[in-house]
Specification:
CATH architecture of the largest domain: Roll
Largest sheet: 6 strands, mixed
Structural class: alpha/beta
CATH topology of the largest domain: Diaminopimelate Epimerase, Chain A, domain 1
CATH class of the largest domain: Alpha Beta
Radius of gyration: 35 Å
Oligomer: single chain
Strand content: 5-15%
Shape: elongated
Order of helices and strands: HEHEHEEHHEHEHEEHHHHEE
Distance between the termini: 87 Å
Strand order of the largest sheet: 5-6-7-8-10-9
Number of domains: 2
Number of strands: 10
């Protein structure tokens, strides 16, 4: 009898736990009324979002439709979440990723407002990470990224880690130099740098510019578009303009980041060769990799030796030496050998000991003599050549930046 009583109590307790859980999960995590996913992909995304519900007790949902009856994407997301049984726990905690194909609008909204770890800033960050796929109509990878980024934020909350959100995406490719996959890969590298070192390492490209001075334009983009992390807005931006074929690196605050003027000169020179060849993925991936290496060395109390690293890590020094030998030294050696061979064949005259043998009889008649200097001394002063500039400078906002600039 006691065993039956214990079993009954356990069943009642389990039932009491299930009832509130199911009551707050009235809707599936994925409602794809717009038909953006195949059945297989929809099932996979639904499974992943259900895992979030079970693991973190947080309703993370996706809702798509072709027409929006509300005034805005935010209003429609609110209406769907609040009036259709979404949310978990006493406060109906949750996150809604809403997409309307008819208007081309989307939004990520968390509930209850201001009472969850997923703040408005976090929602903007999630949407920002999904945007490249949405712009390419790759909805499956957009929802997959939604799941991955949200899960990462929940894990950080559990581990007690601080969330670091920049004010702008670290990569803005207005010139369209990268494919979607390349864009996402470079972005992920730059986001990881932000998260690991709490400093902005950004890239900004455009086809046309309103300022022919690339350094000044890079400074303005940094200052007036909210770049920089932490209280001092620490960071660096790599600006590229395709119409002028100019680039610039701008750092802030001057002298307070690991990105010294020497580092900017090195980064500019390292990336310029890829820019000139039109290999933009290698340009920006090399920029991100090297910037992270500089930060890693700085965190360990070291400074990167740019001279030795240029040759030992990439082999580019050896490459250029081989290129010089191939294009300059070998042709010159061949030309010298051929010329010497022909000269030897033409040299048939026998040299005479005295000049008398070469004088025409009666031609030597000196009437006037003068002293002539056979030697002279010529002094030369090196002319200053133009090159990519680096150093401290003041931007139009009055802030002191470091950096470097050049052309490609």
């Amino acid at each position: 009898m006691k065993k039956l009583s214990s079993l009954f109590i356990l069943l009642v307790f389990a039932f009491a736990l299930v009832i509130p859980f199911t009551a707050h999960c009235e809707n599936p995590p994925l409602t794809d009324n717009a038909g953006l996913l195949t059945a297989e992909n929809a099932e996979h995304i639904s499974t992943l979002l259900s895992e979030i519900r079970e693991t973190y007790g947080y309703d993370v949902a996706v809702y798509t439709e072709n027409d929006n009856p509300a005034e805005s994407a935010t209003a429609r997301a609110d209406e769907l979440f609040l009036n259709n049984g979404y949310g978990m726990g006493e406060n109906n905690r949750g996150l809604m990723f809403y997409i309307c194909t008819g208007s081309g609008k989307y939004n990520v909204v968390s509930y209850p407002e201001g009472e969850t770890v997923l703040t408005t800033e976090a929602c903007d960050y999630i949407a920002e990470r999904c945007a490249p796929y949405l712009n390419d109509s790759d909805f499956y990878n957009a929802f997959l990224k939604y799941y991955l980024v949200t899960t990462d934020l929940f894990e950080k909350e559990l581990d007690g880690e601080e969330f670091r959100f920049g004010k702008n995406p670290p990569l803005i490719d207005n010139a369209g130099l990268l494919t979607t996959q390349e864009f996402v890969e470079i972005s992920d590298m730059l986001y990881n740098i932000r998260d690991e070192y709490d400093i902005d390492v950004a890239v900004y490209t455009e086809n046309e510019t309103d300022n022919s001075d690339a350094q000044a334009k890079a400074d303005d983009i940094y200052d007036y578009n909210g770049y920089g992390m932490g209280e001092n807005d620490r960071g660096m931006i790599y600006y590229v303009c395709m119409s002028t074929r100019n680039y610039a690196l701008s750092t802030y605050p001057y002298g307070e980041t690991p990105f010294s003027n020497e580092a900017c000169d090195y980064l500019g020179g390292l990336c310029r060769q890829y820019l000139s060849e039109g290999d933009y993925y290698s340009t920006f991936s090399k920029y991100a990799e090297t910037a992270e290496l500089i930060l890693e060395k700085d965190a360990g109390g070291e400074t990167l030796d740019f001279d030795s690293y240029a040759v030992s890590s990439s082999g580019e020094g050896k490459h250029y030496i081989a290129l010089i030998i191939l294009l300059v030294v070998i042709p010159l050696a061949l030309a010298f050998g051929l010329t010497a061979h022909k000269q030897k064949k033409m040299n048939t005259a026998v040299m005479q000991t005295f000049a008398e043998q070469y004088k025409k009889p009666g031609s030597m008649n000196i009437e006037q003599a003068s002293d002539i200097f056979l030697y002279s001394t010529v002094s030369k002063t090196r002319r200053q050549e133009s090159s990519s500039g680096s150093g401290s400078h003041t931007s139009s906002s009055g802030r002191s930046h470091g950096g470097s600039s050049g052309s490609f």
